Amino acid sequence: MSVWTRTRRLAATAALVGFGLIVGLVLASTQSAVGIEAQETAPAVMRDGSDIAMMVPQGAFIAVAEQLRAEVVFVEATRPQQRRRSEGRFGRLFEDFFGNERGRPDFEDEDGTPDFDSLQRSQGSGVLVSADGYILTNAHVVAAFNPNTEELELAAEVQVTTFDERLYDAEIVGADLGTDIALLKIRGRDLEYAKLGDSDRVKVGEWVMAVGAPFGLQNTVSAGIVSALGRTALGMRTVYQDFMQTDAAINPGNSGGPLVNLRAEVIGINTAIATNGGISPSFSGVGFAVPINLARRVMDQLREHGRVIRGYLGVSVRAIDRDLRAAYDLDPRTRGALVFEVTKGGPAEEAGLLADDIVVGMDGARLRSQQDFLQRIAAHAPGDRVKLTVLRVQEDGSSQKVDVSVNLSERPEEAEILANQSPGAERRERDNGDLEEESSDSDVARNLGMRVTELTPRLARQLRLPDQVDGVVVTGVARNSPTAMAGIEQGDVIIGLNRVKVLSVDSFAALLAKHGGPSEILALRIYDVSRRQMGLVTLRVPRN
């Protein structure tokens, strides 16, 4: 090929490439222009087509924070020093009384100098609910149950600071340990106050904000969602638990502050947090608030009577959970509360309610849970008559529905009930040195990690048992065994198994042989010698 020919071909190729680049640039510019025009910003939408921006306006959080600023207060209280401890199945993972408490140094002498070490300062939050100065907060911010005196001790001094740094002395109108709600009063006029919402309409996933003074930092706002509803059995002393769970940051000092929705309505009173323990437990993404509808009912009674007046049935109950349904061979849909103790001389005993009755309905309505049962009873006034629908065990082991009508009396103060339940001076080290031991002759008992013996008159005196307690005495518990995991300890008395009375070691062995197959669930009625009270525990028989 000649040089001329090659030169012409290269020129032609170059021309084609140049033409292609020009066309490409033109097309690219056209495509870009068309793309910009076509790709208009579209609002994010939910599956049902609703506009997220309309559901959660960007400025809503700012507007709520600005509005709530004047309605939330900082609460400081001085009260007797109490040793803090976590109780219940959450152990140290759960802290229910978490005011920012600061003990005073040892400062006393013989000439009568006050014992400052016996005082503590607790810090919390509150929310104004009226123009004349009523404030909702937590009971544990301004009061505490003293197990030594067995009384509710109110703070000697309570001061409230508003957002504009005005300081008020506050009166404790009343404090309810059953719900951990307290009502304060300051002298004020034309105060800005919060609007109370309807906690029955709250939905899981709804945006919420927590407002308060964590660690004493006033006017702190955090945001999150409602994580769950109806949380119960949280290891707290509060009887009436129906908590809202939220991941809005709640820390020590937030106690008593409001949980609000994006309409600036108070839907809960921040009360508790779940923590990983430690010296200074703090927020870990799980907080709890008392629903405002419950807090409002308590507030109204505290304002009118200075205390909460509740109907009283006179029973101790526990929840119907999966293990209990299995142990008692109940329908999986069964809901309600199991009566494990009937108070002597109380309304329930007079009406004929029995231990092991399972309350499934009240006044023709089905019960949803143990807490539903407790709340319904508490909502009644003393003297009201209620009709309970119960499942009662028959001689053949089957259950039959019966109706029991009860005239309610007035429930004692929560402090009085706690005093009766508190181990106090009764609590002591177990005298285990010379418990009579006798094998139960049961492989199942050994698999459960326990040994039992007959309850003799000498053992009954040694353990100081009430006359009505009868059964077999636990003389040995293996570490890490199902018995130990259920909380049964040496010296406890096993009274019944799966709703059948335990009369002797032989009868206990026979019941274990009948109900104690591998992976079976057993429900044991016990008398706890240390706490001097009845209890009901469930445990699973190991497979091997």
Structure description:
The protein has 544 residues and is an alpha+beta fold. The chain folds into 3 domains: 49-107 and 115-306, Thrombin, subunit H; 311-421, Roll (Pdz3 Domain); 431-540, PDZ domain (Pdz3 Domain, Roll), CATH 2.30.42.10. The strands form 6 sheets. Strands 1, 3, 4, 5, 8, 9, 10 and 11 form an 8-stranded antiparallel beta sheet that branches. The chain has a 6-stranded antiparallel β-barrel with strand order 13-14-15-18-17-16. The longest helix is centred in the N-terminal third of the chain and has 36 residues, at 3-38. The chain is elongated, with a radius of gyration of 32 Å.
Topology:
Elements: H1 3-38, H2 52-55, H3 60-68, E1 72-80, E2 94-95, E3 102-103, E4 119-128, E5 134-138, H4 139-142, E6 143-146, E7 151-154, E8 157-161, E9 167-169, E10 171-176, E11 181-185, E12 195-196, E13 207-212, E14 220-231, E15 243-246, E16 258-260, E17 265-274, E18 287-291, H5 292-305, E19 311-312, E20 315-319, H6 322-327, E21 337-342, H7 347-351, E22 358-362, E23 365-366, H8 370-379, E24 385-393, E25 399-407, E26 409-410, H9 414-421, H10 443-448, E27 450-454, H11 457-463, E28 472-477, H12 482-485, E29 493-497, E30 500-501, H13 505-515, E31 521-528, E32 533-540
Parallel strand pairs: 12-17
Antiparallel strand pairs: 1-4, 1-8, 2-17, 3-4, 4-5, 5-11, 6-7, 8-9, 10-11, 13-14, 13-16, 14-15, 15-18, 16-17, 17-18, 19-26, 20-21, 21-22, 22-23, 22-24, 24-25, 27-28, 28-29, 29-30, 29-31, 31-32
